[in-house]
Design brief:
The protein is an alpha/beta fold. It contains 16 helices and 18 strands. It starts with a strand and ends in a 7-residue tail after the last strand. The C terminus is likely disordered. The structure holds adenosine-5'-diphosphate-glucose.
């Protein structure tokens, strides 16, 4: 079996608490532990001047290599382009996207820096798997340096409508970068359709057999691989969490009130403002819920260095304060708003206690919290998932109460319905949801992606052909006309 090399911006280093890492990091680490491999990513450190060589370490079959980034490049790459331009646009928020050409140049510099430092660590048969929007150009940069290995890419966030994608001045460059991978994985079939539509309508490409596409003088493969969670493990964790003191404390503090829970990074894609407005609307329209329901919104601060996130933080603090100011009683606080993260074994217990999982992103690649909420439920007395139709997860979790997160009245009505739902209906809906999250797990996601990548035929690329270093495959030099 070929060695696996994973590239992602952040990684979980040995000694870092896995309990605090997201399910994805755990899933990737499991893949590396099984096959053996290298995890390559940013060290979390920036330097003035040129950063040094990657720091290497290893535990068991996993080698780690982490790279510092020059401080100015980091600002352009991470704050400027990845999170200032790509993230908002890909989440259909063009108004929040702040485009600067200098930021794009920094984004390319960091991708080149990563490719230069990764190349000496590679072996000829390594299977390389690159993660997320920070590294779209990485395969192009690796190919330029003569790397002929199979390289796959997975985009964790949505792919936007082509009409929005073309507002990026370098849309052709990024689209061509995606085709430099042997396989590009997206979260859902709808994402795949949007990217295909871009290739067909904007740049005159054509679809070939299977999931292949030809455009911009290149051929590539694009397919959907909906990400999942380690369902069994999370369900066990939630069950055990019922005996933890943290769970008992939350349960006692509710004094038999129903709990509605939201768990998100503090991000404008997650629809937090509308969620709070909807909770306020619930209390105003159905006063019988006053003093009977508590919303626990967990939202650790994220990307505090990006201006849009600082503004969001102020907005959500203001809203939570307003709802409490208007409705609280001496012995009841309607909204508990917590800016911190929790270990997974505590979070799992909180999710299990909640009668309603309130997951209402304005746009989300998948949303693993929705799947974790389902996995955490007590089969004999499960809660109800209220889920935005704009989360990737809505494509699979069709037995949730599916809502439009822009429609505050609809959100409030769905909350009311969920809180009143009789046990037999809750069980029927939950069984169907649990069936889905048990079939499509983090393991099936990872294995199906890697299998598809390993079975990718060498791409018959057009343009200048050069013999690959190890003679196994051919690759194209960068096609300047496509940039
Ligand atoms: P995120 O935007 O981070 O991920 P999500 O899919 O919900 O969103 O994953 C978050 C993970 O972090 C979950 O495992 C969750 O339990 C954990 N988490 C969130 N808040 C936490 C807290 N306060 N304490 C502890 N853990 C917390 C991106 C995309 C998503 C896509 C994932 C995976 O934006 O759309 O589903 O990647 O591909």
């Amino acid at each position: 079996m070929a060695r696996l090399v994973i590239v992602s911006n952040r990684l979980v280093l040995p000694g870092e608490k896995l309990a605090r890492a997201g399910g994805l990091a755990v899933g990737l680490r499991d893949a590396l532990a099984r096959r053996g491999g290298l995890w390559f990513g940013w060290s979390g450190e920036t330097t003035e001047g040129t950063a040094g060589e990657p720091k290497l370490s290893s535990v068991g079959k996993i080698a780690y290599a982490t790279l510092d980034i020059n401080a100015a490049d980091y600002r352009d790459f991470y704050v400027g382009y990845a999170n200032g331009a790509l993230w908002p646009l890909f989440h259909h928020r063009p108004g929040l996207s702040l485009y600067r050409r200098s930021a794009f140049e920094g984004y390319l510099r960091v991708n080149t820096w990563f490719a230069q430092n990764l190349k000496p660590l590679l072996q000829p048969d390594d299977l390389i798997w690159v993660h997320d929007y920070h590294f779209i150009p990485l395969a192009t940069e690796l190919r330029r340096q003569g790397v002929a290995n199979r390289i796959g890419f997975f985009l964790h966030i949505p792919f936007p409508a082509p009409e929005l994608f073309v507002t990026l001045p370098e849309h052709k460059r990024l689209a061509s970068d995606l085709l430099a991978y042997d396989l590009t994985g997206l979260q859902t079939a709808a994402d795949v359709r949007r990217l295909q539509r871009y290739f067909l309508e904007e740049v005159g490409g054509r679809t070939l057999e299977g999931d292949r596409i030809e455009a911009l003088g290149q051929k590539g493969r694009i397919a959907a691989f909906p990400i999942g969670i380690d369902t069994e493990r999370f369900a066990r964790t939630a069950d055990k969490a019922m005996r933890r003191p943290e769970t008992a404390r939350l349960s006692d503090s509710l004094s038999s009130r129903s709990l509605v829970i939201g768990v998100d990074r503090l991000d404008y894609s997650k629809g937090l403002a509308n969620r709070l407005e909807a909770f306020q609307e619930l209390l105003a329209r159905w006063p019988e819920h006053k003093s009977r329901v508590t919303l626990l919104q967990i939202a650790p601060v994220s990307r505090g260095e990006v201006a849009q996130y600082r503004a969001l933080r102020r907005e959500i603090e203001g809203l939570a304060g307003r709802v409490n100011g208007k409705f609280a009683e001496a012995d009841w606080t309607p909204v508990r708003y917590l800016n911190r993260s929790f270990p997974r074994n505590v979070l799992a217990g909180y999710l299990r206690l909640a009668r309603v999982g309130f997951v209402t992103p304005i746009r989300d690649g998948m949303n693993l919290v929705a799947k974790e909420y389902v996995a955490a439920q007590d089969p004999a007395d499960p809660g109800v998932l209220v889920l935005s139709r704009f989360a990737g997860a809505a494509g699979e979790l069709t037995d949730a109460l599916i809502v439009n997160p822009y429609d505050i009245d609809e959100l409030a009505a769905a909350l009311h319905r969920a809180l009143a739902m009789p046990l037999d209906q809750r069980i029927a809906r939950w069984r169907s949801l649990m069936d889905v999250v048990s079939r499509n797990t983090i393991k099936t996601w990872r294995e199906s992606f890697l299998q598809a990548l390993e079975s990718s035929p060498p791409l018959a690329l057009e343009g200048a052909m050069v013999e690959a270093g190890n003679g196994r495959r051919k690759l194209a030099s960068a096609d300047a006309s496509a940039k």
